[in-house]
Amino acid sequence: MIIVMKPKASQQSIHAVTNYIENSGLQVHLSQGEEVTIIGIVGDKTRISTENLIIFKDVDRIVPVTESYKLSNRKFHPDATVVKVGNTTIGPGNLTIMAGPCAVETKEQLLEIAKAVKASGATILRGGAYKPRTSPYSFQGLEEEGLRYMQEAKAQTGLSTICEVVSLEAIEAAVKYVDMIQIGARNMQNFILLKEAGQSGLPVLLKRGLCATIDEWLNAAEYIIAEGNPNVVLCERGIRTFETATRNTLDLSAVPVLRNKTHLPVIVDPSHSTGSYKYVAPMAKAAVACDADGLMIEVHNNPACALSDGPQSLTFEKFEKLTAELRPFCGLLGRNF
Ligand code: PEP
Ligand code: MN
Question: Whose CA is nearest to atom 3 of ligand 1?
């Protein structure tokens, strides 16, 4: 349930409403915009006579909210959230590109890729140090050593950095070295990990689970925000369907649907969703066209020798061509890139 106050409602009127709610044993989520203040009620609504609230001075209307996620809900928080990651931001006005290898393999490989993606316009370097692989016999990542290389790449290029975490130990290590942590598709409903990510103090990129509905995804975001960390970015990375021509099916309609449902920034990963370098550029352009706030793209210095996800990795040349082609799209949409 949310209480929409009249434009320019006085602080006194707002306090009268919030006191009433809090004195009834419920919590208040306050969103004070330039014109309008919105008061969200979180908790057991049977403790309060919500119809009485319309009598309070400066209350405009009362809107019931049926979704279980509140903190990530746009109804509670109409202004779009901007998430700061190191020295870059994700949110309205920008197209933020995260690029880099699927896995950090060696220091030299990472530095070479970091320099190349920066030259083509990426502002965040991605690189997996803990790899949740389908097979236990596949390369599992360099772990903390990989994080140290990420830190070195940041020092040399000025790029902000993101790395996936798969455990509490990985979070504890990541906070020492990178600017943003990623919860991967396979862990989207690992609720313990979500809570730990919420307590990490770092912004979190939350990828959509392989079979997750949008509401399940937003509830997962809620777990992180409920721990006091509002800096969550959602990443559509394709879902499992009956189609086998691509690795997953990229659900681009998730972008406008999420815009409607949440204030959190939304980015798209055309690499893991398609599974083939051939489809990355068209789907990246489609993601920008439907107003995504950013992209996550796998780029490798030598895809044929990559230790993971070579078939979907772009070469430096292909990545440079793509970013050059994206610039006019961004201009049309009024997004800085
Ligand atoms: C990744 O980004 O490295 C990754 C494993 O992606 P996803 O969780 O989307 O499969
Ligand atoms: Mn990958």
Answer: 102
In 3D, which of 128, 138, 99, 97 has the Cα closest to residue 313? 99
Q: Is the CB of 100 under 6 A from ligand 1?
A: no
What's the pLDDT at 34?
Answer: 82
pLDDT at 285: 97
Coil vs helix vs strand at 148: helix
Question: Among candidates 133, 95, 100, 105, which has minimal Cα distance to 118?
Answer: 100
Å from CA of 83 to ligand 2 middle: 23
What pLDDT score does 235 carry? 99
Distance CA 236, CA 286 (A): 13
270, 287 contact by CB (below 8 A): yes
Low-confidence ranges of the chain (pLDDT < 70): none
One-letter identity of residue 249 = T
Q: Residue 55: exposed, middle, or buried by beta-carbon count in 10 A (0-12, 13-18, 19+)? A: exposed
- Closest to 247 (Cα-Cα) out of 218, 266, 269, 267: 269
Query: In b/e form, how buried is each residue of 196-227, taking b as 16+ CB within 10 angstroms?
Result: bbbebebbbbbbbbeebebeebbbbbbbbbbe
Nearest to 69 by CA among 168, 206, 211: 206
